[in-house]
Predict the structure.
Amino acid sequence: PGIQSIAYGAVRPEPDPQGVPMIGATEIIEGDVIDTVPRRIAPRVADRHPRTRLEEGDLLVVLVGRVGETAVAAQRHAGWNVARSVAVIRCTPQARAEGVDVWLRWWLKTPHSRRYLQASSTNSEHVTLPLLALRRLPVWLSSEGAVRTRHLRTITLAERRLALNARIARCATELADVHFTRAFH
C-alpha cells in the first residue's frame, strides 16, 4: 500500500549528447546521485519508459551490482530517466505525506532487507535483483500513526547527524591537507 509504481529504466539506452540525462547504478553511491557529467539518452528511448521519468522524491534502488543501494531523486533530476540497472519506486502523494518513502529507504538498509535482497538476487555475470523480488520485499510498517511519526522523526534526526558527520570528516580532511601543504612546501 502506498506504492504508485515500481519499474526499471531503459534496457537499450542510445547515447545522445543532447538527449535526456540518465542515472545508472554507477551514479548511485552511498545514498547520493553523483551526476556531475550525466550520460544522456535519445528522447525517443526515454519516452518509451514513462514510468521511470523521474519526479522529485522518487526512490532509486540499484538492481545490478550493489543490489539494494538507494538514493532519492532531487528536484534537479525531475524529467531525467534511469538505466535498466536502477528501479524507480514512486509512492502515492498520501504515502509521501505519511513518510512511507523515508521509511522504505531506511527499511532497505536493514539487515533483514539486505539478507532478503541478497538471497533473491541471481549471481550470473553481475549480481542482479529481479524487479519481482523487489516488489515482494516484506516491509514492516507500523500502522499506528504516533509510533510511525516517532520512528520517522528518529530516522530523520539520524540521517541529519550522518550527513553532518560526513561533512565534518570532509572538512577535517581538507583542513589537514591545507595544513600539511603549508607545512611541507
